[in-house]
Each structure stands twice: as structure tokens, then as C-alpha cells.
Amino acid sequence: MSRTKARAALLQELEAAMRRSSAQGVLYGQTVANVAGIANSDLECMDILYLEGRVTAGRLAEVTGLTTGAITGVIDRLEKAGLVRRERDEADRRKVFIAVVPEAAMKIGQFYVPMQQAMEKVFAGYSEEELRLLLRFANEGYKGVLAATEALKSLLDTPPEKRPDLKLKKLRPNP
């Protein structure tokens, strides 16, 4: 097999492995959300809040791509569940920040312990140099997905008649 074909096969295998891992991560998050009694999208917003720190609803809308109205609903549900709280800015009382309730984050975090333990076993098989490479890959991959997401979102500003035809034809059941 030529180097070009071998590389193409390796890249195809890597893409498939990443897609499986990504899908399983989504399914794991859905299971956590189900066990916690909240919607998966609300759990993802809570995770973004946890990673970003205390942010405004506007910033959360910006990061998630949701409308401010949808974010208000997410925040209301998360607040009702005791997972986040609204905090007024001391310098500007008109500004409201959304913050994760630390005790609630710890409770939700317990559902992730089995996954963290499994990943620790995986990471144990890598040298520090390999871990730095994986970190670089993950960070650059994130930036790539972020850019692709922004490009896809631009289709929302395109009139429907000028968007690519993505309608799926109804499949006939097999006889």
C-alpha cells in the first residue's frame, strides 16, 4: 500500500474512532441528564457555565448559539433544580451573572467518576510527551469544530431557498 493510501486509511480510521467517541460522550451525557432529572441541553449549558465560570445570560447565549429567550428558559430550569443561581454584579446592579452552585456541581460530578476513572487508565499508558500531543490535538480540534460550527450557523442567515437541499427522502421499509 502506498504512503498516500496508508495515510488516507489511517485518517479514515481516526475519524471513525473520534466519531464513535463523540457519540458515546453525547450518550453518556444524556444518561447523566436522565439520572439527574434534567434535559441534556440544560446539562450541557451547566457544563459550559462550569468551564467558563460566572457569566451573563447573554454570554451563555453567545457560547451556546441559543437565543436569549431559550437561555432564560434553561437558566430558569437549572435554577429551579438548584444547579445554578443568579448573582447581581456588585458594581452594576443591573448586570446579572449566572453561576453554578458548587455543591450541585459536585453531586452531578459524581456521575462522571466512572468515566474519569476509565480515562485515567487510558492516560496512564501515555508518556508526558504523548499527553502534550493529545492536549494539543484536543485544543486544535476544538478550535476546528468551533470554526465549523460558526460556518454552519451562517446558513441560518441564508434564505431557505438558497440553502443546500438537505431534505431526506422518505425511505420505504424493506419488504
Automatic annotation (TrEMBL):
Annotated Pfam families: MarR
Gene3D superfamilies: Winged helix-like DNA-binding domain superfamily/Winged helix DNA-binding domain
GO BP annotation list: response to stress
GO terms, molecular function: DNA-binding transcription factor activity
Domain (HTH marR-type): residue spans on this chain: 7-143
Protein name in the entry: Transcriptional regulator
